[in-house]
Prior knowledge:
Beta-Lactamase, six-stranded antiparallel β-sheet, flat
Amino acid sequence: MPGPQRLLSSLCLLLLAIALVLGAGWQAGRFARDGLMATLHGRLEVYGQSLDAMLGRFDHLPATAALDPTLVRLAQSHDPALVAPVNDYLRTVSRRTGAAVLYLIGTDGTTLAASNWDQPNSYVGINFGYRPYFQQAMEGRDGHFYGTGTLTGIPGYFIAAPVRAPLADGGRIVGTVVVKVLLDAMETVWRDAGDLVLLTDRHGIAFLSSLPDWKLRTTRELDALALDELADTRQYGRDSYPPLPFTMPHRLGTPVQTVDGRYLLYGRALERDGWSLLVLQDAAPVRRAQSLAAAAMALLLALALAGGLAWRQRFRRLQERERSRAALEQARLDLERKVVERTADLSTANAKLEREVEQRRHTEQELRAAQNELVQAAKLAALGQMAAGVTHELNQPLTALRGLAENCRALLDRGREEDVRDNLAFMADLVDRMAKITSQLRGFSRRSDGPPEPVPLARAVRDALALVERRLADQGIAVDLGLPSGGLVVGFEPVRLQQVLVNLLRNAADALRDRPNPRIRVTGHVNMDKTISLSVTDNGPGIGFEVMPRLFEPFFTTKPAGEGLGLGLAISQAIAREYGAQLSAGSGPEGGACFTLTFPPLTERSPTGEEKNHAPA
C-alpha cells in the first residue's frame, strides 16, 4: 500500500521538523531569559535600596522636630504668640533637610504651624484629622501614609510622630509633627534609566510609575472595603482606578515571571506599608530570540524540502491561477446582474417617490385652499355680527344728510348761499365718514393671503379698534393703549393681522359682558431677543384651568349656544403661525385673560439678496 506508507512517512517528517523548530526556539528563549534575569534582579535591588535610603533620611525627622520646646508649648497652649517662632523653626528644618513641608497638627486635627505658612496653599488652619498618619500618631505610633494632598493636589509620602508634653505634665500626647516627602525624583530616575518600574501600595494601586499612563492604575480589582477606605482617607482624590494593561501574578518573589506573554516581571514586597516594587522588562528580546532560532531551523528544513516541492508548488500555482480567473469572471457576471436588478429597483422606487411627492403637493394645495376658505368664512361671520353696529353708525349720518338737504332747499329759496355752502361742506364730511366705515369693512372682508410686508403695529391696532368701536361703546368698555411713542413695525399681511386683532378684541368684549368697569388694555414692546410682543388684556373673569389646554382647539367655545363657532382663536393661531408669529394665552395682572402675539424680528432683503434688520420705527 504505497499511498498509506507515503502519508505516514510525510507525517513523521512533519512531526520531526516541528519538534526541531520548537526545540531550537525554546532553547534560544531560555538563554535570553537567563540573561535578563540577572539584569532585572540587579535593577530591583538598586531601586529598592535607593528608595529605602531616600525615605530613611526622613523617618526620624518628625520625632526629632517634636522635641523642640517652643513647638511643644504651642501644641499644649495654642498660644498665638508662639506660632511665628514655630513657623520659622519648621521652615528652617524643612529647607535644611529637603522636606517638602513640615507642619504641626493639634489634637483636634487642625494645623497650628507649618513651614509653608506664607504660601498660597498654606496648611495652617487646615484640618487633617481624617488622614491615617494623624490617627496613628495620636495613638502613640509613628504614622506613615502616601497620598495626594487634598489642598495642593501634589502627591507625597507623609511621616508623622506624636508630640508629647513634658513628663512633669504627664507626658500626654498634645499634637503631631508631620513631614511630607516628594517622591517625584524616583520616577525621574526610573524614567531616565529607560526602565518600566512600579511602586504599588497594599491595595495593588501603582502610585509611582516610570510610565505616567500607568500611574494610579491597579494590579487587581478593588473590593468595596478597599474603595471605602480610599474614599474615607482621600488617599488619591479619585473614585475609580482602572486596571493596568497586564495581569499580575498572584505571588511575588519568584525570580522572573512572564506577564501576559508581553513582559518579564521581577518584583518583591517591601517592608514599608505593604508596598511592592516591580520592575518590568519587555519580553520582546526573548520572543525575538525564540523567533530567530525557530526561523533559522525552519529555514534549514525549508531549504532541504525546497528542491522536492518546487515543481509541485509551480503546478499548484497554475491551478490556483486558473481557478481565480474563473472565479473573477463569475463574480463579474454576478455583479452585472445585481447592478441591473438594483437599477430597476431604484427606477421603480424613484417613480413611486415622484408620485408621492406630487400627491403631497396636491394635498397641501387643497389644505391651504380649505384654510383660506375657513378664514374667509370666519371673517364674514364676524362681519355679520358687526352689521348692527355698522347700521347704527350709518343711520346717524344718513339722517343728518336728509335734514341738511331739506335745510339747503329752504336756504336757497331765501337766497342764503353762504349758509348753503356751509351745509354742503358738513354733508361732505359726513359722506367721508360713511366712506371710511364702509372701506374698513370692505378691506376686512376681502380675501388676503399675500406675502408679509412691514406693518406699523399702531395703525393695525387703530384699524381693528375702528371695526369694533361701536360694540365697545355699547358695552361701555374703556380701551387703554400702551404702545411705544416711536412705533413698532412687524412683518405681516395687513388684513390678516387686522383679522387676528379683531378676534382678540371681540373675545375680550365677550368676556367683559355684564362686568363692572370693563377695561381692555393693548400694550406692545420689544423683547431682549429683538422679537416684538403685542398683548390684549381684559379685567374679565379670566381663563379657567380646565379650559386652557383646549383654548385653541377648533370648534371649542365657552360661549352660550348660537353665539360663536369656536373658530376665532384657532384661525388666529393658524394665521399667526403662517407668518412666523406665536399666539399664546395666560392670565393678566388684574386676573383677567391676556392674549399675546409675539412677532419675529422684522428683516428685509436688499436687491442683492442680503438680509438687513428692520429696526422699529
